[in-house]
């Protein structure tokens, strides 16, 4: 069966998912427009001396981040709540049948990530469950292709696709000792107890994790979907818990009309969603069980509203964030192009809110970061452009004065410029000495964040745990790591203050002696480093006290959690190292660019005056050249202003500290807050690797 559909069917399917599709497509276009604006800035004609290699690389990095950016949607629920059917209804109805396996009972056996990357053919990658016995983390295993079982997807055949994806639900039987080693044994699970009594075996998944690379239009535009198994598997994969929620733009937590909010639902909500997910929607699925024909539509609606109200009360949530749907009927409606059934299924309302929340979340994080950092870079270039304009104006004034002065008077003008250049060269010598001092201090600062130091600390922590993997030991060691991290942050902050003081002295020198804009170096902010470590401490404490974790064999679970914790701590250190490196590059980087441009301008002024001295023809020629340069540099300034205005108007977040350029005559004044340290962090936090969308 071919998955291609007619133009008419395509149009109807588009209508059915118009909001979700259009919002994600609109977001993709917004990223493309932002990239085009950055390209416009890179191609700015005044960049001869205004953009150094580090800044240029940074702009290309930002462009790559925008190109690879993803919108992450995670679905969390206990078994049999209809997660997979909801995914089929939301994204894959164009197959005219179920794409992902969805049937009564337990279907999703392992966490499944669905995305698209053109770096690889359409395929499904499956990680064997035996890898749980190793200490290798999921993030590491995603960089090791040999351990994955790869199956090519035949995207021209829906039947072949469906058959291939049946691998997601494969199970096998093992003895109880193997189940314990792999973290699957739960003595409170009655079905496991029954299996053990009947066959002496326990049923477990064949696969630990699945990656589906599929060229769906929404996935091509950056959407990533994660389908998770139930409570037991979530508890047995702490790395998912530590990594998934901070990266997701939206969490869909599914409950079911036929079960209500169960004890295990509440455990998932309390442990993984309520406090950890910034953007969450609750789905009350399977409302079609109320469509028994015995009640009128109005009576059914009253029952649904009552259940929404009860669900909101139990979860402590506003009822506007709870969506009653029938995923199964929504899928049927989309396949049959039944608009009435589609409306009754309630999925359109969910799609609208989901699209709004996901895209708005991305605009707030990535949009704010990119627009703010690029705006600051353009602002710095604008200063360079203004230095050129001011210098040419001074040159013109001197040449015109020279034109009407006596020989002795012209000597005075020339001597004045030469003296100014000598003072400037003296200041440059001071700058170079200060720059070398800052460079030495920078190397010392970055050594604090070396991975060698971190590896030693984590190895000592693991040694302290020994063979006794207990929650007490885990809590004690994360508290010790937090204490060390706070002390480290204080040391780095102190050294950062010293570096800033040296940088401020240099800014002060060139302001007082050479008329540069009065400014200060950006301050190094280590708060996010501390908050990130403290957040891990809080998550660890919740993990150690959560009743969910009583369901899984202790030693296995605590060891896995510790390994996942190590990955997160390493990521925090690496990100902070990047933050500090970026800060050190910019602490006097802007001043250095201004110094170079100002020196070139001074040299040109002196050379022009020397040429024009005692030569009337040269004076006239140099005045004409200076007038042309003035027009050129003013045009370059106007180009920057236009690019900046375009960038600011592309911002789709609440701008509380960035103002659009204010026009006054022919001059555009720009007021931008400079906090590139946090910007660097936000951009990198939003970066998602293809091989590891979440972990």
Gap between N and C termini: 36 Å
Helix content: 55-70%
The strands making up the biggest β-sheet line up spatially as 4-3-7-2-8-1-9-10-11
Strand proportion? 5-15%
Low-pLDDT residue intervals, each spanning 5 or more residues: 1-17, 655-695
- General form: elongated
Mean pLDDT score, rounded?
81
Instruction: Using the CA coordinates, give the radius of gyration.
Output: 31 Å
Major sheet details: 9 strands, mixed
Describe the structure.
It comes from Methylotenera mobilis (strain JLW8 / ATCC BAA-1282 / DSM 17540). Keywords: Coiled coil. InterPro entries: Dynamin_N (IPR045063), P-loop_NTPase (IPR027417), TRAFAC_Dynamin-like_GTPase (IPR051943). This is Dynamin N-terminal domain-containing protein. The structure is a single chain. The chain has a domain at about 445-590. It has a nine-stranded mixed beta sheet, sandwiched between helices. Strands 5-6 form a two-stranded antiparallel sheet. The protein is built from 24 helices and 13 strands. The chain has about 700 residues and is α/β, with parallel strands linked by helices. The protein is about 60% helix and about 10% strand. The protein has helices at about 5-15, 20-40, 55-70, 85-90, 140, 160-165, 175-180, 190-200, 215-220, 230-235, 240-245, 265-275, 295-315, 325-335, 340-345, 345-405, 405-445, 450-465, 470-515, 525-545, 555-585, 590-610, 615-650, 675-685, and strands spanning about 70-75, 110-115, 125-130, 150, 170-175, 200-205, 205-215, 225, 250-255, 280-285, 320-325, 660-665, 665-670.
């Amino acid at each position: 069966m071919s998955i291609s559909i007619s133009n008419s069917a395509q149009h109807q399917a588009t209508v059915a998912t118009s909001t979700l599709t259009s919002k994600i497509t609109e977001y993709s276009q917004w990223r493309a427009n932002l990239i085009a604006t950055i390209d416009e800035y890179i191609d700015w004609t005044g960049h001869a001396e205004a953009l150094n290699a580090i800044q240029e690389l940074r702009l290309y990095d930002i462009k790559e981040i925008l190109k690879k950016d993803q919108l992450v949607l995670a679905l969390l629920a206990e078994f049999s709540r209809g997660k997979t059917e909801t995914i089929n209804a939301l994204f894959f109805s164009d197959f005219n049948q179920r794409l992902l396996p969805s049937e009564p009972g337990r279907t999703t056996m392992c966490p499944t990530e669905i995305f698209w990357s053109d770096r690889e053919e359409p395929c499904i990658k499956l990680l064997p469950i035996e890898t749980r016995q190793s200490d290798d983390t999921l993030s590491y295993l995603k960089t090791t292709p040999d351990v994955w079982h790869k199956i090519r997807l035949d995207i021209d055949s829906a039947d072949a696709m469906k058959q291939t994806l049946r691998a997601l639900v494969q199970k096998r039987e093992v003895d109880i000792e193997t189940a314990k080693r792999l973290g699957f044994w739960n003595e409170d699970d009655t079905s496991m107890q029954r299996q053990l009594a009947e066959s002496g075996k326990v049923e477990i998944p064949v696969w630990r994790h699945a990656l589906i690379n599929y060229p769906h239009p929404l996935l091509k535009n950056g959407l990533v979907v994660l389908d998770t198994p139930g409570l037991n598997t979530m508890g047995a994969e702490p790395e998912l818990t530590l990594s998934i929620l901070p990266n997701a733009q939206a969490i869909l937590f599914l409950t079911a009309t036929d079960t209500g909010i169960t004890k295990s639902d509440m455990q998932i909500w309390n442990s993984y969603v309520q406090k950890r997910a910034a953007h969450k929607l609750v789905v009350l699925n399977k409302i079609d069980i109320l469509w028994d024909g015995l009640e009128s539509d109005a009576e059914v609606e009253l029952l649904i509203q009552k259940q929404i109200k009860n669900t909101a009360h139990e979860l402590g949530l506003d009822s506007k964030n709870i969506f009653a749907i029938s995923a199964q009927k929504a899928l049927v409606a989309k396949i049959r192009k039944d608009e009435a059934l589609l409306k009754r299924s309630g999925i359109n309302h969910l799609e609208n809110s989901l699209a709004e929340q996901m895209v708005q979340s991305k605009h707030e994080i990535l949009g704010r970061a990119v627009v703010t950092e690029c705006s600051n870079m353009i602002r710095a270039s604008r200063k360079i452009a203004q230095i050129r304009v001011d210098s040419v104006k001074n040159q013109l004034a001197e040449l015109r004065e020279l034109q009407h002065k006596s020989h002795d008077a012209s000597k005075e003008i020339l001597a004045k410029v030469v003296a100014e250049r000598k003072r400037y060269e003296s200041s440059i010598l001071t700058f170079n000495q200060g720059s070398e001092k800052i460079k030495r201090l920078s190397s010392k600062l970055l050594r604090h964040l070396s991975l060698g130091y971190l590896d030693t600390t984590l190895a000592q922590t693991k040694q302290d745990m020994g063979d006794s993997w207990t929650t007490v030991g885990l809590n004690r060691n994360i508290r010790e790591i937090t204490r060390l991290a706070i002390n480290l942050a204080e040391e780095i902050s102190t050294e950062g203050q010293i570096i800033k003081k040296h940088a401020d002295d240099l800014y002060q020198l060139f302001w007082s002696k050479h008329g540069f804009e009065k400014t200060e170096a950006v301050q190094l902010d280590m708060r996010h480093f501390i908050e990130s470590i403290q957040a891990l401490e809080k998550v660890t404490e919740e993990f150690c006290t959560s009743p969910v974790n009583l369901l899984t064999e202790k030693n296995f679970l605590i060891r896995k959690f510790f390994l996942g914790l190590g990955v997160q701590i390493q990521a925090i250190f690496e990100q902070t190292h990047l933050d500090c490196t970026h800060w050190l590059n910019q602490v006097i980087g802007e001043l250095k660019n201004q110094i170079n441009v100002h020196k070139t301008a001074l040299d040109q002024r002196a050379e022009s005056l020397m040429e024009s001295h005692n030569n009337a023809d040269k004076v006239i020629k140099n005045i004409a050249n200076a007038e042309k340069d003035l027009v050129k540099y003013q045009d370059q300034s106007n180009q920057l202003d236009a690019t900046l205005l375009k960038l600011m108007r592309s911002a789709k977040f609440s701008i509380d500290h960035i103002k659009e350029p204010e026009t006054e005559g022919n001059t555009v004044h720009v007021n931008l807050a400079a906090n590139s340290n946090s910007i660097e962090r936000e951009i990198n936090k939003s970066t998602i690797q293809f091989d590891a969308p979440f972990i």
